[in-house]
């Protein structure tokens, strides 16, 4: 982890355990999940986009959205109940998938009205990452209901934080910034 002398703490790779994620949620003013996300629906082929890429549906039958971690450390057998967590070893790339209930269950106290930015695919495809965090005191949860590239998210993040630095509230930013204008900025940079 990178120390707090820089004003933030970074948990990366195997150091991003479920307990440290939960600690960050209950202690952090701003928490960013900059990882991968998925749902419990494997997806089915839908179409081919204009650039020739296959498009899959991972949302229509999803029950759970998951944050993907590379560490199983701290995950208990109870965390696997009702589809709240699962482990997958895909081509030698291990991944612990946890939904918001798992994170909330590892929190010892509520969040101090924080903000969670989920720079992950499918984090908002269902409410199973968002709602448990809201129930634990997180005031703002931002995420994506579909797939997003890291570069694409960074464009959205930059616009968001520029507005926050300029003194806007989250509500003001959302009310005055259309999805289309954010998408245009991302497409202009070639990041979608």
Would you give an account of this structure?
By secondary structure, the chain is α/β, with parallel strands linked by helices. Helix content is 29%, strand content 22%. It has helices spanning 18-27, 100-106, 130-135, 150-165, 170-176, 179-188, and strands spanning 30-34, 36-39, 44-48, 54-57, 65-69, 85-90, 93-98, 115-119, 140-142. The strands form 3 sheets. A 4-stranded antiparallel beta sheet has the order 2-5-7-6. The chain has a 3-stranded parallel beta sheet with strand order 1-8-9. The protein has a two-stranded antiparallel ribbon with strand order 3-4. Helix 3 links the parallel strand 8 (115-119) and strand 9 (140-142). The longest helix is centred in the last third of the chain and has 16 residues, at 150-165. Mean pLDDT is 86; it is low at 181-192.
